[in-house]
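Hi Q.,

Before the meeting this afternoon, I wanted you to have the (3S)-3-methyl-2-oxopentanoic acid prediction in hand. No need to reply - just skim if you have a minute. The sequence and ligand are here:
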Amino acid sequence: MKRYLNKGFLLMTVLLLLALTACSGNSSEKTSKTNSAKGDKVSAKLGVISYITGPGAAYGEAITNGLKLAQKEINAKGDVKIDLVTEDSAGKQEQALSAAQKLMSDDDIVGIIGPTLSTEMNVVGKEADMNGIPIMGTSTTAEGIPQIGDYVFRNSLPEALAIPTALKKAVDKYDVKKVAILYGNDDVFTKSGFDTMKKAAEDMKLDILTIETFQKGQSDYNAQLTKIKGLKPDLILCSALYNEGAVIMDQARKAGLDVPFVGGNGFNSPQVIDIAGQAADGLIVATPWFADKPDQKVQDFVKKFEAEYGKKPDQFAAQAYDALYIYAEALKNAGEADRDALRDALAKIKNFPGILGNFSFDKDGDVVMEPTVLIIKDGKFQLFE
Ligand code: 1QQ
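Predicted structure with the ligand bound:
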């Protein structure tokens, strides 16, 4: 990762800094206003950009619930005090960008969590990197997100890890030879998922019978599904967010297409079952999170989450919960609420014991993670073995 500084910009910055130092005579004012002194408890304000309203609002609800629970626990422990300032992006690129600009213009905000979609992060990440504020996606899984810049991180399972793992298991289990691919061609995440699906199918020497596309908000998929049915695939690879994905599965089953589906992160939501009902059976996904995992840490979190919100946490809640703990750890290690110090401390996180396992960033700010493969069976996500 490289950051390029323009010489004119550098000169202006130096002159501005000289002028500010001469005028204020108190160069530590900004940090002393918002931070405790090094070694003391750190108090920090973080911005959150989430998909809270609109067709994908269940993603944002899970994410903000995970964050709020973690915030409550972190603040109760008292090593670090975190304030969250939350903005709704409604899943829209422009709205996410103006939310980010608003958050970044507050000097007291030292880091950002979100936005929810890779489509949003593609523009917001660039802006955050340019402004030197750390940003961490908890659900952004497309290729190339952490490579946007030094200040851009994620703790979510990339499609490039999830899809080949899920497909391999399905191919072995069902002796799959022929597949059809269906993907949303107007979204960064669904397009990236498609690239990964195509490559994985080619690497596994599968016969790709057809590649079909759809757009966000589409309600009728019968043209694509009728064509796919006529070609008799053993399995369908589908790259979609839950609201389109669930409708596709429902229409596929009604059209008599009973083959298994392999989906990416967007499909790994209980919303798929809520919307598609029985038609969701046969969906296979790879995930860093499984709420029924017999692990003490996982079960403690599930219990606390259920007590707070009356439902089990999904992958998006779990990733957000871990993300705030990672930020808290980085703030503690930085010893001050400062954007650059926080970025450097985040980059150094290694083997942090989260509920998704021991967490480390790689050199690009991407995750190192082992997914588990699940299948929806009898209306429930279950281990796929
Ligand atoms: C992305 C995703 C979506 C499923 C987030 C909700 O993974 O946009 O990258």
